[in-house]
Structures are given as C-alpha cells and as structure tokens.
Amino acid sequence: MRIGELARRTGVSARSLRYYEQQGLLTAVRLGNGYREYDEQAVLRVAFIQDLYGAGVPSEVIREILPCSSGRHPTGDCSALYERVRQIRDRLAQQERLIGQRRAMLDSYLSGAASPADLAVPSRGTAAPAHHVPPGPV
C-alpha cells in the first residue's frame, strides 16, 4: 500500500509516517517512481509506534524496542532494553501519582474544603501537602 492509504488506515499523517521512516522506525520499499510501498504489517507497526509514543517512549528507545517485539533483534538479548522500558514505566507511574495528588487538591478546593492558598502543587519528587481542613467545632 502507498503512504496515503497507510495514513488513512492508521489515522497517522503522511508527514508522521515519513518521520517514522527517517527515524528508522518504519521501512518502505521504494518503487521506480519514488513512491513508498508498505506491507500489511506496517498498519500494526504504526499502531504500536503510536502506542509507545503515547506512553512517552522516545524514538531512540522505540527503535530498539521494535526488533525485540518482533523477535528480530540481532543479538536476541533484549534484557538491557527491558530495563530501560521498566524505568520509563516507573517514571510514568510517578507522574500518575503526581496527577492524582493534583486532582485531589483540586477536588478539595472545588468542594470548599481548601482555599486557593492551600493548593500548592508539589514539585517532582516531593510529597503532596496535607489537605487543609478548615477550623471548626471539634
């Protein structure tokens, strides 16, 4: 299939597909007229690339992941790569916790339990401040 059809089937722009090729993430056969020709597997590969980008994985790591995911890694040893992916996963988990803390602070504000001054957003690697409880009868 040509680049336009691959773009249509994956919902990814032709420009992005060219970028993926430039980054070594996607390959195409060049026809005599210069057109790119992709096989059916390209649809799945593009979806996988999109998922990895969506998870915050940089293109240089994606380039390493792709051969391991298809069983075509030159050395067959993907253990170092797996460790890098674990680190990315752990960083995402930390970001999710921070988002949860921020959401809880905003919920507290919206419910009237906290004032704007109580909504100090923690920086990376710090714990969230305790939620402000307005003084009242004990």
Automatic annotation (TrEMBL):
Keyword flag Nucleus: no
The cross-references to InterPro entries, in alphabetical order and at most eight, read:
DNA-bd_dom_put_sf (IPR009061), MerR-type_HTH_dom (IPR000551), MerR_fam (IPR047057)
Query: One Pfam annotation, family name?
Result: MerR_1
This protein's species is Micromonospora rifamycinica
Q: What is the lineage of its organism?
A: Bacteria, Bacillati, Actinomycetota, Actinomycetes, Micromonosporales
Please verify whether the record's keywords include Ligase. Answer: no
**MF terms (GO), sorted A to Z:** DNA binding; DNA-binding transcription factor activity
Q: What name does the UniProt record give this protein? A: DNA-binding transcriptional regulator, MerR family
Signal peptide feature range: none
Q: Which SMART domains match?
A: HTH_MERR
Per the record, the domain of life is Bacteria
- Alphabetically list the UniProt keywords: DNA-binding
